[in-house]
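Entry type: protein chain
Record version: 2
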Amino acid sequence: MKEETKKKLMEFFSKYPLKKYKKGQIVTESNESFKGVYFVKNGYLRVYDVRAGEKESGIQIFNPWFFLSLISAKTGLKSRHFIETMSPVEAWMAPAEEFEKFLRENPKLEDELNKLIMEKFLDLTTFVSQLISGNAYLKVAGLIYSMAREYGVAKGKQVSIKIKITHKQIATLTGLTRETVTLQMLKLEKNGVIDNDRRQIVVMDIKELKKLLGDE
């Protein structure tokens, strides 16, 4: 998201009360109404499903609360997933009708958000393709690349991923076991793709990671 776009959104949402959530708190359940459009000031969330008798299945949608609640506001659909905080979170919630009015008054901003939603969709379809056809190594590498794009801070060739994520959470997002994820993370580190010594993932060369994934 462009800084100019983010600034405009923050100016709008900051008129509404700021809500605080603890780490590990479920903020939206499956089949629940969003009740408005949410914009996160700080913190991270994850999206997942739980099928009857099955293990938890994560979904790779970053910045999920804003985009899913925005889609809900435009379609009237309820949430189809659980959304849970991965860290303490602060977020504003604006009534859907007020946000729709804001977008009508700012058509360029609405166009920008529509493009972002389409980009999220393309990112998701790419990741699904990797899950279907890729091996465990590429599945984990693909997720790390997506995280670097969304939450990365670049310094030369390297990109530090701001969000902290556990091997168990990576497992739910890739459909792998936690043990398999640990092995692939060690391989990525041994091959010089990442550095994970301080529990923060650093991509050593983002262009090389992109090349590894065949996404040149």
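Comment: The mean pLDDT is 87.
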